[in-house]
Design goal:
- The structure holds 2 protein chains of 2 kinds.
- Chain A is of the alpha/beta class.
- Chain A is built from 22 helices and 10 strands.
- In chain A, helix 19 (427-437) packs across helix 20 (441-461).
- In chain B, helix 10 links the parallel strand 5 (248-254) and strand 6.
- The chains are: A alpha/beta, B alpha/beta.
Chain lengths: 512, 329
């Protein structure tokens, strides 16, 4: 979602990179544009002002390092300021190796620190519609994955059916999300009432819930409070009461990433009354420029802990300022990509596959598994956006995850023998597979052909250096792969502006 | 007694919120100061902080500067009047050209609801269908409850369709509102096809000869292609069942939304052309300046504003009082 903000930055900085030196006038001019970009991204005005002033101060009187041009130097300055704005940089100890630094960047963020003795109490608060209930479920799933049991408490007695919603969410997390720990649900549905009529009742509900959680030995209790306006004193008092009586270890403020200038006002107000420990931004997967995240962080000083990145209950990510600042400036976020991959593929599996590849023994089955773990990491577009230099290039491109569905469908329609030995495939087998997967014989043949080419190339690549590998991959792309496999630049990536979505029938016609 | 004290306390609540907006208003900033460039710059800041956006703010400030330099504005109160007039004009006239692909010509502001026309052959008036869309958490379901109450007060027969089959508890939420307001709700299974619910609801609305059918949809971000295609399907299904439906497609917009609101209006219009905006949650500190930003580039008029949690907290949008409130003390 920071893509649009980064677009604004890159165009400004690109202009600057042509200049010979950083001079006061060209920096000022560039900063005026950065200002507009930030304002259009909904960054609060006071934050915009202090940010641009800071950058100006850093930039003026700085000697351009010989190896860099002024544009690169400016990117460095803006990057540092952005990281500063988004959160604190981890301290890098003197003499740390590249590997150590990489490890630090890979490490989990603060997440939800466990309290001793338990249960850890987490209170969620925020305006109506910011996404508290969904986020409660996502956080429960995140903890469950890390082996921590969770109790979700329905403390929203105001919104009709809020209790039902949290109950369903709790059941979904328990049933569908990975992890050994249990997710339970606590509510007193008879206490719900029309808006404004059950104020204060939630305090008791929370107390009883925590007592129960303690007796059950639950690791973390998450309190889902009702959405409220920061100017509603009565309801804000209720939160203060919960805070006073239950002393939550963590208070998370849930903020809609699409909020405009008002984000700062409401967050400030919540923070003054409750001393928020962390921020969770929702709807981060939208095309909002997300200035709210920058401003709320900078005004309240509370750290951004998590971001919600999709409809599904596992769509939550820890927030890393360093990586996000890089993403904003179009530098990509390889670390997040690697971490995502790690969550899906174990190191042993990866090693085993590498060996198979080297010997040219990869089967279609391995390929299917790989494809599936890749897709579990998220939609293709989101993944590719994490790669350096790709973010802005992808802006107008429509990636069809459906095409990958077809690839999966074809492999699924093969017998086990066929998957291991694709050379078995003759015309009649291909016809059967095409029928079974709702594709055409040509598509089946094309997939097998591409697969064979790839496994041959990877066999050759096994002994190469990284650079040679890159070259080989480039050649593979240039060789014009068929329409099926997601090699970049093939029809898999389509330009949104000029394209339409052909029906399956159309696609068949095209092939024939 | 209880009834009266209730009304009074409600009034007080409302007033305290208004006071909150008053404090930050433009009027106190402008009046009593000498009119100069610094003051105009301060006004620019205020407009930006009210989410009016760079484009509309620049337009307003540039015209104020021109008039100031031409000697047409002499005192600070002239500036205030100038701004009021221009904001009102901007709201009334909309953009100079259509800002959303497929949008008809720029149209003047009309807060009137679009309704179904009687069949010329039979003279029978089909139900007016209102499709309600918006992103997650914008306030669709609450706004629908308010709309239903609005039509009930006009003694119209209302039917609700619970097409949000995705979010847990969404159908139940609408049902509870239906029970409270005495309005029937057509629903399907959680996780079921929302277009099927829309189909059933349109059939039921025609069969029962209701006046208004209001269709709730799942919240979706405009970037989620499959969900936007689903919305398109609901839109088409309604049109096939009832001629001209949906007569009104309302986009519910959270008053605190920033410049992304424009993207929402554009992208939602690609799937289900938006005919009006419901600005929700205007009872916070947000001033909803975003609707000026939208009006500067798109023709979509604001039709309703939501100002609270009860079913009565919905008013037809009145540009004059909106402008007055924005520029209050």
């Amino acid at each position: 979602m920071f893509d649009r903000l980064s677009d604004g930055f890159s165009s400004v900085l690109r202009k600057l990179s042509g200049k010979g030196a950083i001079s006061e006038s060209n920096v000022r001019e560039a900063m005026e544009q950065v200002r507009t970009a930030l304002l259009e991204a909904d960054v609060a005005l006071e934050v915009v002002n202090s940010f641009t002033e800071g950058v100006l101060k850093d930039a003026l009187g700085r000697e351009v390092t010989k190896s860099l041009n002024p544009g690169q130097e400016m990117i460095g300055i803006v990057y540092d300021r952005l990281v500063q704005l988004l959160g604190d940089l981890p301290e890098v100890p003197a003499g740390a190796s590249q590997e150590d630094i990489a490890k630090m960047m890979m490490a989990d963020g603060p997440g939800v620190a466990a309290a001793e003795p338990g249960p850890t109490i987490v209170m969620m608060c925020g305006l109506q519609g910011s996404g508290k209930t969904t986020t409660c479920g996502k956080l429960a799933g995140w903890l469950k994955k890390r082996g921590r049991s969770v109790m979700l408490v329905a403390a929203d007695l105001q919104r009709p059916a809020a209790v039902d919603q949290l109950q369903t969410v709790a059941e979904q997390v328990q049933r569908d999300l990975p992890g050994g720990a249990t997710v339970t649900f606590y509510s007193e549905p008879e206490k719900t009432a029309e808006y404004g009529k059950a104020v204060g009742v939630a305090v008791g509900v929370c107390e009883r819930a925590v007592a129960k959680a303690r007796s059950m030995g639950v690791d973390t209790v998450i309190l889902d409070t009702a959405g409220r306006l920061h100017v509603n004193d009565q309801l804000m008092d209720e939160l203060k009461q919960v805070n006073l009586r239950l002393k939550p270890h963590q208070i998370f403020l849930v903020v809609d990433a699409m909020t405009g200038q008002d984000a700062v006002r409401s967050a400030k107000s919540f923070h003054e009354k409750l001393e928020v420990d962390g921020l969770i931004f929702t709807k981060f997967d939208s095309d909002t420029r997300g200035g709210a995240a920058l401003s709320v962080k900078s005004i309240t000083g509370a750290k951004i802990r998590f971001v919600g990145v999709g409809e599904k209950l596992d769509a939550i990510e820890e927030f890393h300022p360093v990586r996000v600042a890089g993403r904003i400036l179009g530098m990509g976020d390889v670390v997040s990509l690697v971490q995502k991959a790690r969550e899906q593929v174990s190191e042993e599996d990866a090693k085993a596959l590498e060996e198979k590849l080297a010997k040219g023994e990869m089967t279609l089955e391995d390929f299917l598994n790989q494809l599936r773990s890749l897709r579990r990491m998220g939609p293709m577009k989101q993944l590719l956006g994490l790669l350096p230099g790709i973010g802005s290039a992808l802006k107008n491109i429509n990636i069809e995850d459906e095409k990958l569905d077809r690839v999966e469908g074809i492999i699924h329609s093969m017998t086990k023998d066929e998957r291991r030995k694709p050379e078995l495939l003759n015309s009649s087998r291909r016809r059967r597979i095409a029928k079974g997967s709702g594709t055409s014989e040509n598509e089946v043949a094309a997939l097998v052909k591409q697969f064979t080419t790839i496994s041959q190339i990877s066999k050759q690549m096994a002994g190469m250096s990284a650079l040679d590998k890159m070259k080989a991959v480039k050649q593979l792309g240039a060789a014009g792969q068929g329409p099926m496999l997601p090699s970049m630049g093939s029809s898999f990536l389509r330009n949104k502006g000029t394209s339409y979505t052909p029906s399956i029938k159309d696609r068949f016609k095209k092939r024939k | 007694m209880g009834f009266f004290s209730n009304i009074i306390s409600k009034l007080k609540d409302g007033l305290s919120k208004t006071r909150e907006t008053l404090v930050r208003g433009l009027k106190s900033l402008i009046l009593g100061r000498t009119l100069d460039d610094a003051l105009i710059e301060d006004v620019r800041r205020m407009l930006l902080e009210a989410d009016v956006g760079v484009e509309a703010t620049t337009r307003l400030i540039d015209s104020a500067k021109d008039d100031f330099n031409a000697g047409k504005l002499k005192e600070s109160k002239d500036l205030l009047e100038h701004l009021k007039r221009h904001v009102r004009e901007l709201l009334q006239q909309g953009p100079k050209q259509a800002g959303i692909p497929g949008e008809p010509e720029p149209r003047p502001l009309s807060t009137e609801l679009l309704v179904a026309k009687p069949d010329p052959a039979t003279g029978i008036k089909p139900p007016t269908v209102i499709l309600v869309t918006g992103i997650n958490g914008a306030g669709k379901t609450t706004s629908i409850a308010k709309l239903a109450a609005y039509f009930r007060r006009q003694e119209k027969k209302v039917l609700l369709a619970a097409c949000d089959t995705f979010r847990a508890g969404a159908v139940r939420q609408l049902e509870i509102w239906g029970e409270r307001l005495g309005v029937e709700v057509i629903k399907g299974q959680q996780g079921g096809d929302p277009a099927a619910v829309a189909f059933d609801a349109a059939k039921a609305a025609a069969a029962r000869a209701v006046d208004v059918l209001i269709v709730d949809t799942a919240g979706r971000l405009q970037t989620q292609d499959p969900l936007m295609r689903q919305l398109e399907k609901i839109y088409k299904v309604l049109g096939k069942q009832i001629p001209g439906a949906p007569h009104e497609t309302l986009l519910v917009l959270d008053a605190t939304t920033g410049q992304n609101a424009l993207r929402q209006a554009q992208e939602f219009s690609k799937s289900a052309p938006v005919t009006g905006i419901v600005l929700s949650k205007l009872d916070g500190t947000a001033k909803g300046g975003i609707i000026i930003a939208i009006r500067a580039v798109a023709s979509i008029p604001v039709k309703f504003v939501g100002t609270g949690e009860t079913p009565d907290d919905l008013q037809p949008f009145d540009p004059d009082s909106f402008v007055e409130a924005m520029f209050s003390e």
